[in-house]
Amino acid sequence: MLKQYKTCLHNTLIGKEVQRDIEGEWTQIKGVIIESTNEVIQTQTTSNRNEWWDKSCKLIMSQKNEARKKYLHVKTRATHDIFEAKRTEANKICREKKRIWINNKIRQIEEASNKNDARKFFKEAQFFNKQKSVLPIFCKDKSCNILSEHGDILRRWRQYFCDLQTINTRTEELISKNIILSNAEEVPPPTH
Predict the structure, then answer these.
(1) How confident is the model at residue 97 (pLDDT cuts 50, 70, 90)?
(2) Are residues 62 and 123 in the same domain?
(3) Other beta carbons less than 10 A from residue 99's beta carbon
(4) Half-sphere exposure of 11 toward its Cβ, with a 13 Å CA cutoff?
(5) Is residue 11 one of the residues assigned to a domain?
(6) How far apart are CA 146 and CA 156, in angstroms?
(7) What's the pTM value of the predicted model, to 2 decimals?
(8) Residue 64 is part of which domain span?
(9) Who is most buried in 9, 29, 62, 103, counting CB within 10 A?
(10) 146-147 and 139-140 as β-strands: parallel, antiparallel, unpaired?
(11) What's the number of domains the chain is made of?
């Protein structure tokens, strides 16, 4: 792709005539770069993350933002009250739209479960379980040296948990030995 971009950029620049002024030259180069980029690297349309977000939400949020700008420009009680009212209304509408969307999503998951469609069920359920554990990029070893390579970090975590496990088993052994020893030496009951 890089080679294709370079050749496209080169071919487009060769076909252009040289400008006399520097501003014209820069605008021409900028236009050629953008044109070549659009030709080679085709953009994808981004999907709407929030499927519940629609024109009514967008409209009420823009009204709220305008009310906020007016309040920040002229700080009076009246503009503050208008802003608070718009904010409350916007939150109410967006919360309601999101609640309806989540309920529909749950219904779709239940239908997939009832139809024994495991693939659709787990795909839809993934939305509610987006928590992913991310390992840290850096880690320190026992000597406080920083480890940055993925394999070294994984080995250090393994060593750490193995050490924890051995400490726990040793303490359990000591506790059990202590209980046995304490049971062997019986203490006479106190006399009054």
Answers:
(1) very high
(2) yes
(3) 11
(4) 11
(5) yes
(6) 11
(7) 0.44
(8) 55-128
(9) 9
(10) antiparallel
(11) 3
